[in-house]
From TrEMBL:
This is Type VI collagen alpha 3 subunit N7 domain. It comes from the Eukaryota. InterPro entries: ECM_Assembly_Org, VWF_A, vWFA_dom_sf. SMART domains: VWA. Pfam families: VWA. The lineage of its organism: Eukaryota, Metazoa, Chordata, Craniata, Vertebrata. The keyword DNA repair does not apply. Residues 7-184 form the VWFA domain.
Length: 200
């Protein structure tokens, strides 16, 4: 197992559930997480997708080779917008386009595949089949949700219910990374515990 390697996709609710006023908190949350990861093409690769009624790729796992390039993109990140929220189609999109060799994934080299899903409301489409496909392909999914998100839904989508994090409001989001950073850096499907990767 490659202890210092991970492929991590952020799947962010970019709908009107979040809204332009709250999106900076989402951006700060991702930035804080990325800052504490050992990002690099041979270490941790990061991709990011926003979704509302449809998903859109911001960048893929192999788009950026350095943390500074990745952080520069995050600073420019704008809310996608849209009134719908279709988590099922977004999960299927990521499965088909990002956790693949063509999408920069190193799954064939047995590099752990992780997905962090952030939702600010319930999904409007069916998601169970797409979530099950993630589990079967060995993707470890964590869910972060506001109190308006459906907790039972998040628990179905997450790899297990202990990987669901609920925030009271968006203002608390940038301070949350201390919680998911542990499973993101130490957890591998199959329960293998590894050396943490977060930088001091």
């Amino acid at each position: 197992v490659h202890v210092n390697k991970r492929d991590i996709i952020f799947l962010l609710d970019g709908s009107d559930n979040v809204g332009k006023n709250n999106f900076p908190y989402v951006r700060d949350f991702v930035t804080n997480l990325v800052n504490s990861l050992d990002v690099g093409s041979d270490n941790i690769r990061v991709g990011l997708v926003q979704f509302s009624d449809t998903p859109v790729t911001e960048f893929s796992l192999d788009t950026y080779q350095t943390k500074s390039e990745l952080l520069a993109h995050l600073r420019r990140l704008q809310l996608k917008g849209g009134s719908g929220l279709n988590a099922g189609s977004a999960l299927s999109y990521i499965h088909a386009n990002h956790f693949t060799e063509a999408g920069g994934s190193r799954t064939r080299a047995h590099v752990p595949q992780l997905l962090l899903l952030l939702m600010a409301g319930p999904s409007e489409d069916a998601y169970l089949q797409a979530a099950d496909a993630m589990v079967r392909s060995g993707v470890l999914t964590l869910c972060v949700g506001t109190t308006r998100a459906d907790k039972a839904e998040s628990e179905h989508i997450a790899f297990n219910p202990s990987l669901v994090y609920v925030m009271d409001d968006f203002r608390s989001l940038p301070y949350l990374p201390q919680q998911p950073i542990q499973p993101l850096t130490t957890y591998v499907s199959g329960g293998v515990q590894e050396v943490p990767l977060s930088q001091p």
